[in-house]
Write a structure and sequence with these properties.
The structure is a homodimer.
Chain A: E1 7-9, E2 12-14, E3 20-23, E4 30-35, H1 40-58, H2 62-91, H3 95-118, E5 125-127, E6 140-146, E7 150-153, H4 167-175, E8 179-182, H5 188-204, E9 212-215, H6 220-227, E10 234-238, H7 241-253, E11 260-263, E12 270-272, H8 274-293, E13 305-309, H9 312-326, E14 331-332, H10 336-351, E15 356-360, E16 368-369, E17 372-377, H11 378-383, E18 395-401, H12 404-413, E19 417-423, H13 429-442, E20 443-448, E21 487-493, E22 513-515, E23 518-520
Parallel strand pairs in A: 5-22, 7-8, 7-10, 8-9, 10-11, 12-13, 12-19, 13-18, 17-18, 19-20
Antiparallel strand pairs in A: 1-2, 3-4, 5-6, 6-21, 14-16, 15-17, 22-23
Chain lengths: ~525, ~525
């Protein structure tokens, strides 16, 4: 597949002269073909096509919807090394990581295909009539229907798994929604390749082109125009807090407000409980440094804050962390903008009152990020709320607490998070149990004896959490539960069977349904 | 139980000198004891108590949470005639209606008690670990947890079923959330009686007082203060569009935005399909007038707009509607304010370009509302979007369409609705099937051959719909699915069993769970 620099509007490549370029992450230099900037007309055409395709796509039998998702996965797999090589150059991420991420992306599409066929997400409910009741009880049958066309914003840090064909797109397609993607300008060639694969799948499946569009550009107005288009019914976004908050404002100010699912920022507090710290300070320190420097620290679930009680064991932990850091080489960051923001954020962190340097990674030339860890007393941490600010990259801070009550006080005062982690030995269980209500309020995922980086795509995953980790803590953007974001319930009252969806016929089977209050599989 | 005019803050009656009064709906005259106006200090105390009670209430075993809901129902039942008599005077609603509404209210509490015990709403999911996978697959277990304290705004038109112990309160309690109610000033004595019953139940169940508070007053600032309190995690509201939009704005402007579930306005379009109209014009007209004048038209699901194709049958329908209207007496409206707004709204409707009077109900003296029906051509309707404005009361308009395509065009252009209805004979099915995708996009409930008034409290009910019918079309405020509004998912990764909620232990049983992707009952 050749990269042309064009947008995809409802199955057609479209673009006049290109005006902007991809940049090599390693050098920051522009390279390759020029990309067309999508304008308001492109947005309007993509949204109109999506609205027109929406009832057709929503009405597909679920088996065909699932087949379409599998076909998208197949087409992306077929891109093979072309995709990996392009993504490497654009993002600076290593080959193994990108191959793994492609596997995750197609695996996610196939998981959602299975989920579509499972069908339980339709929440099928039947309450039979009872004409003898006073007043007579009507026949009521409920199912979930798609919200309508979804705008998806590609993320910079997962150029495949959270981008054009990432989790938002896969779950929106699974829910029966057409998708208009606003591609991330940090990987336009990668985006175009994936969009080409989806567009081929749409055509081969015989679906209307409006099922999918990709619009690219570097101006913020593009996203605003997309989110405020009246035909868009919901928004999926992974990125900065500023970007997410702006989309929330635009969506709330529409004549018809729409839901925004923005996954924004998180410092993922990790608590080292005393008995576990005592028995494994050095092992914990090495694993910590491994987690915080993974992928140059550019994960939403990076462990940005560690909490522990002041002790000899904590001193051992900090010394071992310093040693481990010395072995961490600089890694190319995703973009020069991210590198600059990281460098500045880390400088602000270092300069905060009470911050003490624990250790530094090796020199990080060019656009590489230098790993670094600081520590601070809980008193100083509590005195300056900016310590909670996410520094996107391999920087982290250890908060030294006087006792477990102060650990609880720090955690209770923190903003909403994607994850929070407890390292504990059995002797810590009682104290951990007391902390759990605080942690359940704080985050969408609570990890025991692990590290937050690594987000499994499965049924019981929650990659979400209270604001400002996300715009809407009632949801997850990873895992099969993500499909619920793009659905709404409709109830049919006394509807003749001939007009009811097949899944709501009395005789239908094979899907979890709730009949007169009882779940039946 | 004696009415004292005090507020309930976390189990204690509280109020200095009363400053405002209940008004008799029939006369508009103030009567009885003076009520205390809750101030900012009362709001802060109620919210602080709710936040403090929240982890205690959330941690109750589900059997005890269910028992608490049943105890609330029992206490309300015990209020008996005292409650009905007070509500009659405050609202003007007849005795039979209020007794029925009390039955609905306690039935709703008991249904939610059963739902709590059913437990499927917890969405329990277990994905077992697979250490052999590359990378190793963690053990993940998911459940829904309560959002936190919920602010509930009592509605004027259902002084029991959508007020202090109504659907919002019942579903929030069921979800494990503490509740702070802002009572509707149209029925303060009714509210106090019900709040007293809940407060007794809280005390008898041995729960902290913060589980429930009732705050009353007549100033808009009370609601704003409540919704912007940082301890409030969600809002339930039934009322006017203006009121709901204001709460949405306040909630979105908070440092931590929270979900608002506002059920606001709907004109509930009813379509009379040609074959059915031909065979039953007169019967349909009589049932229509019965539905639109029920309870003085003060239902959220009142049939405010009827659509039909111009025909002799439609003329017969309009003549029969006129005849039926002549037999409708004036009925006391809920408040003098609602009566005034109805009278003015009906006058505006009558004066709109193209509106033709079909018929009037009997004279309506004092605070009674006079039933009235108009008709308008679809062309005129489409030319003036204000025809869609809800006139809260027994007024309705019949839209005369040129053909079924124009019916579809009118429905496609309408705002989101709570309900939409199709009257059809078998000969209409093919045309009805073509309309269904439009109706599914338009409303939360699609009724066949019935009338929208009457909302069954059951599993498959949806009392919700796209904006502006509600603030959030992904939900329902009636029926067991309403519990989902007050929950968010939490995932536990590799958590030792000793620290996991019991429902997520491997051996737990009796509740629907999804284990490694498969649903098990």
């Amino acid at each position: 597949m050749t990269i042309t620099g064009e947008n995809f509007v409802a199955g057609e490549r479209r673009g006049s002269a290109g005006t902007w370029h991809a940049h090599a992450a390693a050098s920051g230099e522009p390279f390759g073909e020029a990309f067309a900037a999508a304008g308001a007309g492109d947005v309007a055409d993509a949204c109109a096509a999506a609205a027109s395709a929406q009832p057709v796509y929503a009405a597909l039998p679920l088996s065909e919807r699932a087949a379409f998702l599998r076909l998208v996965a197949e087409k992306i797999d077929e891109l093979g090394a072309t995709l990996t090589q392009r993504a490497m150059k654009e993002t600076g991420l290593p080959e193994a990581r990108l191959n793994g991420e492609r596997g995750r992306t197609v695996g996610q599409l196939r998981l959602f295909a299975d989920e579509v066929e499972n069908g339980a997400w339709q929440q099928l409910r039947i309450d039979h009539a009872d004409p003898a009741r006073t007043p007579p009880k009507p026949d009521l049958r409920l199912r979930m229907v798609p919200l309508g066309p979804v705008a998806v914003f590609g993320a910079s840090n997962f150029p495949l798994a959270f981008s054009v064909a990432g989790g938002d797109t896969a779950s929106a397609f699974a829910a029966g929604c057409c998708v208009v993607v606003k591609g991330h300008p940090a990987h336009p060639g990668t985006s175009e390749l994936v969009a080409g694969a989806i567009t081929e799948a749409v055509a081969e499946a015989g679906l209307p082109g409006g099922v999918f569009s990709l619009l690219g550009g570097t101006e913020h107005t593009l996203g605003e125009t997309l989110v405020t288009d009246p035909r868009i019914a919901a928004v999926g976004f992974t990125g900065s807090r500023g970007g997410g908050l702006a989309l929330m404002r635009h969506a709330a100010a529409r004549a018809v407000p729409i839901p925004v699912y923005a996954e924004m920022s998180s410092v993922n507090p990790v608590t080292l409980m005393p008995a576990r710290l005592e028995e494994a300070a050095e092992d914990l320190a090495r694993a910590y440094v491994g987690s915080l420097s993974l992928g140059a620290g550019q994960f939403c679930t990076n462990p940005g804050i560690v909490l522990a009680v002041e002790s000899d064991a904590l001193t051992r932990f900090l010394i071992a962390a310093k040693d481990a850091l010395a072995d961490v080489g600089g890694q190319t960051m995703l973009t020069t903008g991210i590198h600059k923001a990281y460098t500045e954020g880390a400088e602000r962190l270092a300069a905060r009152s009470g911050a003490e340097l624990v250790g530094l990674g090796g020199e990080a030339p060019g656009t590489c990020g230098r790993a670094q860890v600081y520590s601070v007393s809980a008193d100083a941490f509590l005195a300056d709320e900016d310590f909670e600010e996410e520094v996107f990259g391999p920087a982290s801070i250890v908060v030294r607490c006087a006792d477990l009550d102060q650990v609880a006080a720090v955690l209770s005062g923190m903003e909403g998070q994607l994850t929070t982690t407890l390292h504990m030995a059995e002797a810590d269980h009682e104290a951990a149990a007391a902390l759990l209500p605080v942690l359940e309020k704080l985050a969408g995922r609570i990890i025991a004896n692990g590290w937050p980086t690594g987000v499994d795509v499965t049924h019981a995953m929650v990659h979400g959490g209270p604001f400002p980790a996300t715009s809407d803590g009632r949801t997850t953007s990873v895992g099969t539960l993500a499909i619920e974001r793009f659905l709404r319930p409709v109830s049919y009252q006394d509807m003749p069977e001939a007009l009811l969806p097949g899944a709501l016929h009395d005789g239908a089977s094979g899907t979890l349904r709730r009949i007169d209050g009882t779940y039946e599989t």
